[in-house]
Design brief:
A hairpin with a 4-residue loop joins strand 10 (195-196) and strand 11. The chain has three domains: 1-92 and 169-183 and 224-259, 2-Layer Sandwich (Nucleotidyltransferase, domain 5), CATH 3.30.420; 102-165 and 187-218, ATPase, nucleotide binding domain (Nucleotidyltransferase, domain 5); 262-439 and 473-510, ATPase, nucleotide binding domain (Nucleotidyltransferase, domain 5, 2-Layer Sandwich). The strands form seven sheets. Strands 1, 2, 3, 5, 13, 14 and 15 form a seven-stranded mixed sheet that branches. A seven-stranded mixed sheet has the order 18-19-17-16-22-23-24. Strands 4-7 form a two-stranded antiparallel ribbon. The protein is globular and about 70 Å long. The chain is α/β, with parallel strands linked by helices. Helices cover 38% and strands 20% of the residues. Helix 1 packs across helix 6 (170-179) and helix 14 (376-400) packs across helix 15.
Length: 510
Amino acid sequence: MFEVVHPLKQMIFLGIDCGTQSTKTIALDYESGRVLASASQEYSLIPGLPPGHMEQHPSDWTDAAEKTITAVLQQLGPRRAEVRGIGVSGQQHGLVVLDDKDQVVRPAKLWCDTSTVDQCDTITKHFGGTATVIELVGNAMLPGYTAPKILWIRENEPSNWERVRSVLLPHDYLNFWLTGVKTMEYGDASGTALMDVREREWSQPMLDFIAPGLGSMLPPLQSSLAPAGMLRPELSDSWGLAAGVTVSAGGGDNMMGAIGTGNTAPGCVTASLGTSGTLFACSDQAAIDPAGEVAGFCDSADQWLPLVCTMNVTLVTELARGMFGWSHGEYDSAIAGTPAGANGLLLLPYLVGERTPNLPHGTGVLHGLTVTNMTAPHIARACMEGVTLGLGYGLNRLRELGIAPTEIRLTGGGSHSPAWRQIAADIFEVPVVCLKTGEGAALGAAVQAAWASNAAELGDHASFHDFASRFVVLDEATRAYPDKNHAPVYREMLARMQTLRGCLKHGELL
């Protein structure tokens, strides 16, 4: 185990994870690596907006951060004096705009806001197509990203745009609230579609087209491993903390999730089996997908984080479970008693369209029904296999870009299922394992804060991967290895899925 040498062994670091539905704060003990306290606060989207518009008030985030930090410090009691640093994870791609007095101009447009389809088309056409956009910034222009949101405000709310002086991402806004300093680190910035992810520099042609003078509204880019600043004295006094608490650069939720799962060296991949799914890897060089299916992000440890996202994971399995009236245990039992491949039953799981592959108007297809497999267990297994094959498609796209996975670390609700873990190992063809703690992004934020606070003592030659690994504990009881008899079945199913999808798309049925 990597041993950190520091004269102050008793140190605590706070990790804040600001998501779409809630904010969570944890307290991480530096010496033991244990989570000592945690608290969460829920909030909601702004109701009544037109279809596709997803917005929140940034004050909801700061209020929730205030409440959860206060609750965690109350749980720590006298040990609050040991808090030395704070790190922030935030939902990616959101847009926060401030005026000349640093007041929020309008509610934040979120990652899930799809009102910017026309702006994406405008940007892509201006630069001559997707290939040129990828050449400029390393990613295709998608509605979730920040760049088209800026253009949307400029085109649809000119009076608001006239007031804008600063452009921030959600975690940057929380950092600003904590420190009074505006910064932006490479990881979250790479999801704006304004930055050349290869060079980690703003793309001037993109800035000039989105809005004249946009460059002056963006904070300076900085290393993800450098501090964002120091906690404002008034907050230190209010919370009863010692002076000189460091606030690390923070990052997007996927970037912080990578740190929190130990995905900080090539070979490790993280897969999240939540309502939607993400699968991302650590790379020591930029991994740019010419087809635009893999997001070519930077990570928040000064490397790169190629990522794929699928929209249909537990969304699908939970619908199947509800349809059959099963508990989670009953679902698992049904799956375990049904052969791999569900006797030829295959689900194309695009119930809400799909992002990877890009099928925004796609629908689900259950293919291969026979008198043998038209049963509840077969349909249930086809649902679980179908959504995992979707992630398997994404993993193969990563492989095509040079990523060589040796282990996949599973998170999210689906990872609690032993049957699902085995299916994932068989489809991915590498071992899978869960972690002892499910803190994920909050843990990653706290670990990054610990690094930023101790960088001087650790020295220039210290390894961030070794440092972060000290706080990440695998749950070996959950490890699943690929079954060599199942791998050929799933390879054939994945090929069949791609063929079927191509036929349906060509026939304009997807």
